[in-house]
Amino acid sequence: MRGVILREAGKPVEVSDELTLRRPGPGEVRVRLRAAGVCHSDLSMCEGRLPARLPMVPGHEGAGEVVELGPGVSGPPVGTHVILSWIPPCGTCHLCLGGQPNLCTSVTPPSPPTLSIAGEPAHAGLGVGCFAEETVVDARAAIPIPDDVPFDVAAVVGCAVLTGVGAVINTARVRPGSSVLVIGCGGVGINVIQGARLAAAATVLAVDPFPDKLVAARAFGATHVSTPDGLADAVKELTAEGGGFDYAFEVVGRSATIRQAWRATRRGGTTVVVGAGSADDLVSFSAAELFFTERRLVGCLYGSGDVRTDFGRLLRLWRAGRLDLDGLITRRIGLEEVGEAFTAMGSGEVIRSLVTF
Ligand code: APR
Ligand code: ZN
Ligand code: ZN
Asked: pLDDT tens for residues 107-136?
């Protein structure tokens, strides 16, 4: 089988035809990939800024078709179109039952590993490994969607859209008329912006160093845009008494931008950390500022969503013309161009690169 492989963190990814995929075991299904988005977390894993088991087939934002069921698996049936979830909900733990299935840790990566390369075991990135022709996943990671949804649109729902829109509607529950700041306008940040539009935010300031990203941000609903150096002035101009935004979303994944988001949040407002930062990048807050300003600092994993219902909900919003998913995909590539797509991500030209099969 053909796929992208990362052998060593910090080294370029390679394309190999020598991957082998084992058959699905009990509780597993085999999925043929049809489209897979290139998310910044893939790049962070390849660079060693997020943990990963190596060698690894990266890619965690994918959609495809079920082609085989493991022994005793009742569904989804062969032929079902699915979005892959990189946090499969077990459905029975206290977090799943309590309405926070995005925090479920009960479904562990497939064991033994589903992949091998030249006889050596290899791991599917985030349990799904979408940058390959096929994958074997836990059946609970394969979320059925209607047959008529294009795979391209479905793929981006699998991470960027749920993470970004979910941050607004699930994590922060932005109220109509609010002021919203979004720092970082990549594939995820653009979805925070369109989530804020959907939630009827009155002011949406988008911040990114790249002018092209700011043009895209406006098209997706930002009412104002700024490069990072203009943020302090924009806070003064755009927010009540210059006191900061009701909600500030950090969508870069770095301590410096978390501090910027926090500083630009009003007293009693909410800072949401959407970006996936590294374990050794420390952010500091004084005891006094946490107490006296009553600002809330909240994390956001996978848009605080429930993939079993939110994928469908987001697709219905797309069908209704309330979310632009087609416009997110700015570049269609083959597996051999994933390495280039990582580079393009740092250059600011591309919102989302999509591997099509
Ligand atoms: N201030 C504002 N924006 C910045 C800054 C900064 N200091 N540094 C980088 N950016 C912008 C980039 O220009 C880019 O537009 O942040 C954006 C990041 O977008 P992508 O690289 O497309 O990443 P994306 O896939 O959107 O993921 C963003 O969310 O899921 C996590 O791991 C992911 O941490 C990453 C974040
Ligand atoms: Zn992602
Ligand atoms: Zn669970």
From this structure: 998 889 999 999 999 999 999 999 999 999
Contact predicate 135/91, CB 8 Å: no
**DSSP secondary-structure letter at 318?**
H
Distance CA 331, CA 325 (A): 13
CA of 184 to the centre of ligand 1 (A): 5
Residue 198: inside a domain, yes or no? Answer: yes
**Domain match, 198 and 231 both:** yes
Q: Is 253 in the pocket of ligand 1 (CB under 6 A)?
A: yes
Residue 340, CB half-sphere, CA atoms under 13 Å: how many?
11
Asked, for residue 169, whether it belongs to a domain, the answer is yes
CATH code (residue 255): 3.40.50.720
> Looking at the structure, do residues 10 and 77 belong to the same domain, yes or no?
yes
> Does an H or E element contain 243, and which?
none
In ligand 1, the atom with minimum distance to the C-alpha of 346 is: 21
Q: Is the beta carbon of 274 within 6 A of some atom in ligand 1?
A: yes
Average pLDDT over residues 261-275: 98
Q: What is the pTM of this model?
A: 0.98
The domain of 121 spans: 3-144+325-352
pLDDT in tens, 285-336: 999 999 999 999 999 999 999 999 999 999 999 999 999 999 999 999 999 9
162 lines ligand 1 (CB under 6 A): no
Which of the ligands is closest to the CA of residue 99? 3
DSSP-derived secondary structure letter, 132: B
| Closest ligand to Cα 303 | 1
Q: Is the CB of 38 under 6 A from ligand 1?
A: no
Which protein residue's CA is at the shortest distance from atom 7 of ligand 1? 257
140 with 7, same domain? yes
Tell me, in angstroms, the distance from the centre of ligand 2 to residue 162's CA: 9
How many distinct structural domains can be found in the chain?
2
* Residue 279 to residue 244: CA distance in whole angstroms: 28
Specify whether 19 is located in the same domain as 139.
Answer: yes
Provide the CATH number for the domain around residue 55: 3.90.180.10
